[in-house]
Each structure stands twice: as C-alpha cells, then as structure tokens.
Amino acid sequence: MNNVSLPVNRIYKDRLYKMIFNDKSELLKLYNAINGTHYDDPAMLTITTLDNAIYMTMENDLSFIIDMRLALYEQQSTVNPNLPLRFLMYITDIYSAYTKDMNIYGSKKVQIPLPSFVIFYNGVKSQPDRTEFLLSELFHPTTDQPALELKAVMLNINKGHNQELMNACHTLRDYSEYVARIRTYSAEMPLTDAVEKAITECIHENILRDFLLKNRAEAKAMSIYEYDEEKTLRMFREEGYEDGERNGKIQATIEMCLEFNLSSDAIVQKLMTKFQFSENQAQEYLDNYIAQNS
What we know:
disordered N terminus, alpha/beta, 11 helices, 12% strand
C-alpha cells in the first residue's frame, strides 16, 4: 500500500509559537520577560486557553492565570486592529468559566483576575517595537468617554526589534531567529529546503535546539504550512486590492460615459475595449452599476 501524504494544514492545526510556549516553563519565562517579574514555579500557572471558542471554531492562542493576573497572548503575522474585539470575546468566555460557581447576582463583590492582552507580531511589513490598539477605536459613533474599553499591546518580535525583551526571554529570541532564517532562505531555494536548512543550522547553533530535536518533523511541517499560509493570505490581500482598484476604474469609466450622454451600446463597447471584456461581461458591469445607482 502506498503512503499517502495529507495536506499539512489537515494535520497541524496549532502554530509553532503556540507549541513552543505551551510548555509551562517556557510560558512562565515569557511572562516574566514581559512583566519584569521573577516567578520560578510553573505550577503557579493555570492554563485558560480556549479551544473552538466563540463561533466559527475561533480559538485563542495562549491564556493563563498567575497570581490573580490573567494574560492573553496572540501571535500574528498580520496587523489586525480588530484584535481588541476578539480579546473581548475570549475574555468573556474565560470569565464566564472562572465565575461559574460564584454568586454574581449577590450583594458581595466577586474577585476576578486582572487581565492583560499581548499580541506578538512577526509579519513581513515594518512595524514599530510597540503599538497599542483600543476597543473604543472600533466604536461607531465615536466617543471620548467610552463605557467599555480594552487595550491590547502589540510587540514586534521580528529579529532586531524589542532587544530588551529578547534578551530577557531567550526562547522568544530563538523563535525570532528561526523565523528570520526561513524567510531569508526561502528567497533563495524551495520552501521545504529552506525550512530544513534553518532547522539544521538552529540545532547546530543551539537555537531552539531541544525543541527542534524533540519535535523536528512537526516543527518542519508547521513551518512550511505557516509560511505558505502567510504568503497565500498576503497574495489574497494584494489581489483584493487590485480587484478593488480595477472595479473603481470600471465605475469611473461608466460615470464618465454617462456624463457625455453616451448610449448603453456605446458604454458597453467602451468597456469591452478598455478592459478586454466580452460583450456579456461589459453589459453585466453596466447593468450592476445602473441597478446600484438607480
């Protein structure tokens, strides 16, 4: 019987970042580095990460409670200003679970952990070391005194950024170096070869060495999938922009023709000539424009 290779994304659902920091010892080191604390007992962590939460199988990356402080961490390769809203959804579910045996309808105050929200950015577009996103920036209408607020901090973890944080958490620094090498090598060779080269070098140079030795096959598969996904998403965004720009030009052409009182037949011919449309395609664009603006 022949071996059948399943698509990587069918097998490896989690991110490499999430797999690395699912280890409580590594997660505690990351927390200490961000907050300037010195906790040394991983058993103090209570994991609260959601699986298949909210809707459409949405999941958060990592969340945990330590010493009545609730930390929610997300890794992103794109800048997403809607993350405060997603964090709000996550924390609502977490607080619901946390207080399920408490009397939230009573006269006595319940105590809930103090939250913090951190985004680790490692995308290809240039970003500052630190950016803040506010839930209130999504409100419409806007207000200077929102009744509800949530602040998410995005930290750039690409190589060369946030050096103090990287020096405080060597695993995060190693992860950043590993990702940087894959991006560099993938510009010179096939992605599979680039990932293999990065893994071999990192093991040899003691970069994520123990993790990569233990999880080499999974790390390779995840890395290929994540890089391909990032590239594909970027391509779709670029295509979406191009489609939007093209639609804008089509609309402008129709509007100009109408201003000159050209007939429908003449407008169709203009669209066919300028955008290499068939007659049916040109007519459909014109009909849609008229329907939307009638």
